[in-house]
Structures are given as C-alpha cells and as structure tokens.
Amino acid sequence: MGYYGTLTTGYQPPAVLAGLDIGRQHDPTALALLWREMTLLGSQLEPRYLVRYLERVPLGTAYPQMVRDVRETLDLLPSAYDLIVDATGVGLAIVDLFKDMPEALRQRLSQSPTWPVPASYRPIALTLVPGRQTTGVSATEWHVPKRDVVFKLQVAVQQGRVQVAQGLPLAPMFDKEITNFELRFSAKREEDQYGAWREGEYDDLLLAVAIAVWWGERTAPRQLLQSQQTHARHPGNPLLTRR
Fold it and tell me: Using only C-alpha atoms, what is the Rg of the chain?
C-alpha cells in the first residue's frame, strides 16, 4: 500500500522525519529528528538521512508531559514533518495522546476541511511485531516486523546513507547502540529475537532512528517522471551525486 494520497489529496512526503521510541518503566523515551535528502543515481532517486537531533526524555516523565514536551520540540521545526511513533505495548495509548488536539484547532479543522492537520496530531503508529509480514492497518497505522525495521537501518548505515551531525551530545551513545545491537534468529521457533550484547544496554536511540528510516525508505520517491529526466541530469542539479 502506497502512502501518496492516503492522508490528503496531493500529499507529498516531507523531508523531515521524527522518530519517537516510547520507553517503558525502566528505559527512556527517545526522539530523533532526521532530514532526508534525495540524490540522483542514473534515473533512480536514492534517499540519504542526516540525524540532526537526538534526545532522551528523562526516566519517570509522565506520558502526558512527554507528549507536550515532544510537541514543543516539533513546533520549532521550520518545515513540515512526519511523526513516526513506536506503538508497541503502551505506545498505542501514547499515539492517542498525540491525536488529542485542542478544541480550538478541532473547531478550525471542522470549519475548513482544506486546513491541513498538523503532523503531531496524525502520527504514524508503527507496532513492532515478530514474524516477516508488514501489514498496513490504515494510512497511519502499520504492523511491522522488528527485523525489517532494524535491517533497513543496518543497510542504510552500511551504504553510507545515514550520517549523524557532528557535535550531537548523544551521538556516541547512538553509535554504541548500533555496535551493541544484534539480531538473534531461532530456527527452531522461526522468530527473530533482538537484544543488546550486554544486559542493561538501551536501544532507544537506535529504534527512534530506525523507525524514522523505515518510514523514510517506504515513502521516498524512487522514480523520476520522463519529463523530469533531462532537467534532472543537468550538471547544475543539486540532486546529482558527485562521486
């Protein structure tokens, strides 16, 4: 199922992706902001990601307060974005909190059907499941194998398509999580098991980036229209990859 046209007519995926991994009682919630840029390889478009913001919400923060804090951060973004939330476990309840919009905004939307719904009030809910099948429940709710989410990030990192902005305080922790994270496959039960190399390690930053990359890969335009081919290959086109 494609994403185009499923939310609003003529909808185009934004360049900014916000991944939110919901923590539990003993692990933190993490927010990652990625900027997606498209480069041109032949006639194919290739997405690349720059992680420009990483945040861990302090342990013990009440979920309503966490939602307010995340919204305040997202409101500072200069452009449109997609908010992708890990809806596994308690995450679905958090998604409902993000959909709970102020009455004034609700009235404005009801009076003007063409008014765009802010992205933080229509988050993309990703429930991470075992197995191998991705299921689109709706345009904004998906059940995705955790192995697929992790593999998408691993492949993009190995291809050099994910970079972390210099100077981010949590960048070393993100790099550590990538190093420590492993995939365990049990042939007997035919299900994937994930975990850190050592007990007590977090993977919240990793998953916040991973769910954003998964959504970014799924919604990235790949083909150029025939009418765009000549213009796209012009030497002055900033999409061209210089190698």
Answer: 19
